[in-house]
UniProtKB/TrEMBL annotation:
Residues 126-182 form the Peptidase S1A alpha-lytic prodomain domain. It comes from the Bacteria. The lineage of its organism: Bacteria, Bacillati, Actinomycetota, Actinomycetes, Micromonosporales. Gene3D superfamilies: 2.60.120.380, 3.30.300.50, Trypsin-like serine proteases. This is S1 family peptidase. Keywords: Disulfide bond, Hydrolase, Protease, Serine protease, Signal, Zymogen. Residues 390-409 are annotated as: Disordered. Residues 208-378 form the Peptidase S1 domain. Belongs to the peptidase S1 family. Pfam families: Pro_Al_protease (PF02983), Trypsin (PF00089). InterPro entries: Pept_S1_alpha_lytic, Pept_S1A_streptogrisin, Peptidase_S1_PA, Peptidase_S1_PA_chymotrypsin, Streptogrisin_prodomain, Trypsin_dom.
């Protein structure tokens, strides 16, 4: 049997429609979509995506290309500055012009690092880790409170925001008091929107699952090497899926909803081939080149099987949403519309994969807000590898073997965050950066330790749990210098250099991508 191709990835544009990026598999026995057009506009921006950005964001070709390029740059710089400034990091966002990167810090000494990176420092009172801790308190105290539809960290205002329905401000303030969140660190936003997951119980493209005795439709998210990622509410673990052509497709191997995510993974059978593209339903395929996370304020687009493609802006990250089915944490909020059946479909900033549609309010006639589950969280949770147009992307957590003794560790110097230290007795250890920790988005941590000659220093990466306790997530041991890479979810991390034997000065370089 001819293998059908799962084409998932970048964003597409269909005039007058909204959608989640999804590339339809081709029917067995029909022509594969490989001959479809893949035209590009200035800056490598596809004309279909450019059309959607013009329509929804009012940008011309040059402005759209500039914003997307700046967004990708800002994503990498933000991750590096988060590691470099450690616990002083207060979050990052693109200003309303779409090009100015602002980075909040709690210490004026950290501002020089921000300026050196080409960003604008903003001195704030609370670090991002402190804001996340306040938001976590709300997760416990405000869950299932009637009249509240969500809450999130708002880095530009350096506060947490509680979203309440009209007439429910007192309930919001009461929930904040129970959580121990002061009014000085809180904003209450009034909105009559009532978010819901975006699946439809009706027969249509592109793939189907059985839910509650009926058939629900969702949109494929992004291709991974063994299947595709999608929303967790699009099927429980063990649920069989059917493709758009009514042929058996695969099985839901992983699903989280509600709770700390809305993420799922479908392993496909041998009749389906994951591909790094998105079908725009107009004869074009758009590539997925990577998964660099875009910052707050970035332009973003989504496509889906119900409505086509729409674009907008990232408004906030780390949002908790109260759905009728339960509370979901860690979502990203946008001003892009979506409708039933778009759930699970992909979001992109240019050709960089961002996440899969979870739910929202409104529709693509009157507009609305839509939330997506960050993609890198799904990849890290299941050690999945994103399929990209430039080769399989970083998803699996790996620890390369240590360098041979005497080998030059030139890669250490190339990493953007550099820290030096000295250990004076065997058995001692030191935490970096500077005895503290750093806040990181979901992504790949890369580190290199240049140890002193004759000593055995181990390199350990640790992540804090929700009680502030650190646990080891990756380590590199043995003799000689050390290298380490690890792909993980967002959170607070630190490196620990452990002197197994010997003493002396060491150099540590690291980065987060």
């Amino acid at each position: 049997m001819q293998r059908s191709a799962i084409a998932v990835g970048a964003v597409v544009a269909v005039a007058g429609a909204a959608a989640v990026a999804f590339t339809l598999p081709s029917l067995a026995g029909t022509e594969e979509p490989g001959g479809s057009k893949a035209a590009s506009a200035p800056g490598g921006l596809s004309p279909e995506l450019l059309s959607a950005m013009k329509r929804d964001l009012g940008l011309n070709s040059e402005q759209a290309a500039t914003r997307l390029a700046r967004s990708e740059w800002a994503g990498g710089v933000s991750a590096t500055l988060a590691a470099q400034t450690g616990e002083d990091f207060g979050g990052a966002w693109l200003a309303s012009d779409g090009t100015t990167l602002k980075v909040a810090v709690t210490d004026s000494d950290a501002a020089s690092a921000v300026k050196a990176a080409g960003a604008v420092p903003v001195l704030v009172k609370r670090s991002e880790s402190e804001l996340d801790a306040l938001k976590t308190k709300l997760d416990a105290a405000a869950a299932d409170v009637e009249g509240l539809t969500g809450w999130y960290v708002d880095v530009p205002t350096n506060k947490v925001v509680l979203v309440a329905q009209p007439g429910e401000k007192s309930e919001a303030l009461a929930a904040a008091r129970r959580a121990g969140v002061s009014t000085e660190a809180l904003t209450v936003k009034i909105s009559d929107a009532q978010p819901k997951p975006l699946f439809d119980v009706r027969g249509a493209d592109p793939y189907f699952i059985n839910i509650g005795g009926g058939q629900a439709r969702c949109s494929i998210g992004f291709s991974v090497t063994t299947g595709f990622v999608t929303a967790g509410h699009c099927g429980e673990e063990g649920t069989a899926t059917t493709g758009f052509n009514n042929e058996a497709q695969g099985t839901v191997e992983f699903s989280v909803f509600p709770g700390n995510a809305d993420m799922g993974f479908v392993a496909v059978n041998d009749d389906w081939t994951p591909r790094p593209v998105v079908n725009d339903f107009n004869g074009n395929e758009l590539p997925v080149a990577g998964n660099t996370e875009a910052p707050v304020g970035a332009a973003i687009c989504r496509s889906g099987s119900t409505t086509g493609t729409f674009c907008g802006t990232v408004l906030a990250k780390n949002q908790t949403v109260q759905y009728p089915e339960g509370t979901v944490t860690g979502l990203t909020r946008t001003d892009v519309c979506a409708e039933g059946g778009d759930s699970g479909g992909p979001w992109l900033s240019g050709d960089q994969a961002q996440g899969v549609t979870s739910g929202g309010s409104g529709d693509c006639t009157v507009g609305g807000e839509t939330f997506f589950q960050p993609l890198n969280e799904i990849l890290a949770a299941q050690n999945l590898t994103l399929v990209t147009s430039e080769g399989e992307g970083g998803a699996e957590a790996t620890t390369p073997p240590p360098a041979e003794e005497g080998e030059e560790a030139s890669e250490c110097d190339a990493l953007p965050v550099q820290r030096d230290g000295t250990i004076t007795r065997a058995g001692q250890n030191q935490a970096q950066p500077n005895g503290g920790a750093y806040r990181a988005r979901a992504g790949t941590h890369t580190a290199c330790l240049d140890a002193p000659d004759g000593a055995d220093f181990d390199l350990v990466l640790q992540k804090a749990n929700n009680r502030g306790q650190f646990r080891t997530v990756a380590q590199s041991t043995g003799t000689g210098d050390k290298t380490l890479t690890f792909t993980g979810r967002s959170g607070t991390y630190r490196y620990v250099v452990v002197a197994t034997s010997g003493t002396g000065a060491y150099s540590l370089g690291f980065n987060v991508q």
